[in-house]
Amino acid sequence: MFSLCLTVLVSGILCGCTPGTDNDQVEKKKYSIYILGNEHREYIIQTDGFAAGNYKPETDGVKLNTDIIDRDVVIRDGFYYHLNGRNHILSKYVKTAGELKEVGTLEIRNFIVENYYWIARDTLLLTGLDQKTFTNSWYYKISVGDLKLVQSGLLPIPKPGHGFTSTSIGLTTMLDGKLFLGYTYHKQLDASNYTTSDTAYITSLSYPALKTLHTDKDTRSTYPGGDNTIQNYSFNDEAGNFYYMTCPGIALGNRTDLPTGIFRINKGADTLDRNYFFNISAAISNHAYGLWYIGNNKAIIRCERKDLYKDLNDHWDVAHFEFYVVDLLKQTKEKLNLPLDRGTRRECVIAEGDKVYIAVNSKTDGNYIWCYTPSTKSLVKGLQLSGDTDYIYRIDKNF
């Protein structure tokens, strides 16, 4: 189902630990790894490096309560932020040796997070929909140091019409002092099927007044971005130009007649660069999900293989995803020599300096963080996740 059906997700903590024990010592390692184990067990592991080693989540991580936790966490400066849709509490956590420990809370009622953006290091902007109708678009600006609400309100995104019944916000970013939002609309066709508008909307707003400045409508593709608490779909390059991917594949927009594409908003502009459109589906004959910048006008995309899966029911479990390095200016692509990957949407790429780390889930080759060096095109296995690991859900920088 599309993202608004997937984002009613919640988070929480494991059991409490006795204050003053070693289990209360906060871990402050460089990277965070979120693991899905067998029989729906989930874990968080922290590490200072991906180059080598072998971690087992059942011994090297903390086990999470799967009734109240999920992978749509926002991670920064060693803290984990998550909105629990059941009790309407945004919680702030730290990882200790024994648990994910709650250190702050803020009540936010009737709200589904679809996107987040860091306005400043201590200021988080959440955008999303009302939890009842999925038609009203809201924002919450939060000071994360003390977890206090700074500002909130309705966003000037039109409600769905013309037969469409719900909204998805797929992009939230600040460019040159203006807030940009990307969105589209959906409608349910029957109990198990839906469709998406053929139009992607990009609106620029004044900030902080949030008055509409301009709205672009584009029918070359649809569903701009996606739920970025699950997977990344956009970035700024070194020159300040903003790129984003559209996702009309069956796991998001479900408008497979339209191509996955990469679009650009040039630095200082209020509107799309109409002369730029990278047709990914034409290049790879498939759709893609996920876009990660690795520097020097190159990015990594994660592409499905429609010849290897039957339908959405086995889209998650069947190994069929490939990784490509794309040149954004030349609009060329090069496939990375990695095992076929599993899992429909994952946060699985980190670019850092001259290294790119790529998490791959393979039933035949094992679950590894691979280390890619763009300058030499070297690609080697790094850290292995074994033991109870079924999927590497996400890898993140903690700091």
TrEMBL record:
It comes from the Bacteria. This is DUF4374 domain-containing protein. It comes from Mucilaginibacter pedocola.
